[in-house]
């Protein structure tokens, strides 16, 4: 046993010289001496440094989401929060798509048979009540009442002083309040927001649509002139149009005013005292 240890010790202490020479004239360029013991120590130090760098990368960089270093409980909580955010984004995208489809129907003057996506109705369930009856087409519903927002929680400016000539009526698909007034009277924005449409349509004539906070949209049709362009920011009470008699289905100077909440029509008279 003693001779074996001595033999191993001798091998570990043997000195080896590594020389690098040029191929042309064999001139010596680099020369250094190594022993097996030094090589073993160098490999151990290298592995230690590599392990330390790897740990720091996994613990303090985004790689920790791929290779978690925290407890399983905390990791599961992070995953749960991430799934909640993804689900919220999907609902928001569905809501935007739904509202865009409704706006297109409003502008084109089509009959609005609102088919509420299931994920949107579920997301709005705690704060909304939607009563519906089957429509003529399968898979569609006619909204009888959509009270997605509590009217008492919001203050809206009166867009125009005049006589209410027609009211909100779902059976007739009249999702608006018509206000008769003198031609060229000023129409005002009901709340602050951004103008998202300001142009001529065959059905509504000079039409203006404003996006307000809390997912409200107000629509102003049959105007004589539009005072705001798309992209303009307005405050409550700002002049946005003039009373007119443009477009189809109009019998005199008046404002056709619609109010939409989360893609569904609401009765403006529940929110505004005309």
Overview of the structural elements:
- This protein has 274 residues and is an alpha+beta fold.
- The strands form three sheets. Strands 5, 6, 7, 8, 9, 10, 11, 12, 13 and 14 form a ten-stranded antiparallel β-sheet that branches.
- β3 and β4 form a beta hairpin.
- It is rod-shaped.
- The N and C termini lie far apart (108 Å).
Give the gist of this structure:
With 274 residues, the chain is α+β, with helices and mostly antiparallel strands. The protein has helices at 2-13, 36-60, 72-108, 118-124; strands spanning 16-21, 28-34, 130-134, 141-146, 163-166, 177-180, 186-188, 193-201, 205-212, 216-226, 233-234, 239-243, 254-261, 264-266.
Instruction: Please report which band the strand proportion falls in: under 5%, 5-15%, 15-25%, 25-35%, 35-45% or over 45%.
Output: 25-35%
Number of strands: 14
User: pLDDT under 50 segments (min length 5)?
Assistant: 119-147
Mean pLDDT, all residues: 78
Q: Features of this protein?
A:
274 residues; alpha+beta; 10-stranded antiparallel β-sheet; rod-shaped
